[in-house]
Design brief:
Blueprint lengths: L1 H23 L9 H6 L3 E15 L2 E16 L7 E5 L14 E9 L2 E3 L7 E2 L5 H13 L4 E4 L12 E4 L1 H4 L3 H5 E5 L5 E5 L5
Parallel strand pairs: 3-5, 7-8
Antiparallel strand pairs: 1-2, 1-4, 2-3, 4-5, 4-6, 9-10
């Protein structure tokens, strides 16, 4: 009886661990230019995280509520955002934020408030390049009518005058993501604008 029970418990443990491994790989996000993340978010803010609370459904944790203060709104119309919600587990695209840190946060609004995920543009403010900060505060919004197409193999071309072709994936560098914005010009075409490198 003990041997049979051990086999059953071992089998259950293997199945459980296999299921957890599959769950851990459940969150998959496409690599996109930060401007695309900005333009496809309902709300984009800069805010300091000052606390966190776990939200439960019965006895199961389902999300984390991050308490924020002094939000500066760059995109969207939201009033008095004092918290953001994210799934509890990174397997369901939950974001881990550090208390006391200023973040750029992007997401959507519903009746509960602002929600963020790993697939959004959610990074410490100090990790942004100068060009990205300028993009968030000024340039990205000007290019939200443009399309940013990710190119994975050469040649990277487009015949659409309102499209910028993002080539970082081809060359394996973060050049355009870190230093360029896709801007709509006066002639109604879109083109990359690259900020001068900071010294």
């Amino acid at each position: 009886m003990t041997r049979a029970l051990n086999i059953i418990l071992l089998t259950l443990a293997v199945l459980l661990l296999g299921g957890l491994e599959e769950t851990a790989e459940a969150c998959r996000c496409s690599q996109v230019h930060p401007q695309w993340q900005f333009c496809n978010s309902d709300v984009v803010i800069k805010a300091k995280v000052v606390g966190e609370e776990t939200v439960y459904d019965g006895t199961f944790p389902v999300s984390i509520k991050y308490i924020i203060k002094k939000p500066k709104i760059f995109r969207g119309e939201c009033q008095e955002v004092d918290a953001v919600f994210t799934p509890y587990s990174s397997a369901t695209c939950g974001v881990r934020l550090q208390t006391g840190t200023d973040y750029l946060l992007s997401g959507y609004m519903d009746s509960d408030g602002m929600h963020i995920s790993l697939c959004g543009f959610n990074v410490p403010w100090n990790s942004l390049t100068d060009t990205q900060k300028l993009g968030v505060t000024q340039h990205y919004e000007k290019g939200c009518e443009c399309t940013i197409q990710t190119c994975f193999t050469l040649p990277c071309e487009s015949s659409d005058p309102q499209m910028c072709v993002w080539t970082d994936m081809v060359f394996g560098v973060q050049q355009q993501a870190d230093h360029s914005s896709c801007i709509k010009r006066d002639d109604d075409t879109c083109a990359w604008y690259t900020s001068p490198q900071q010294t």
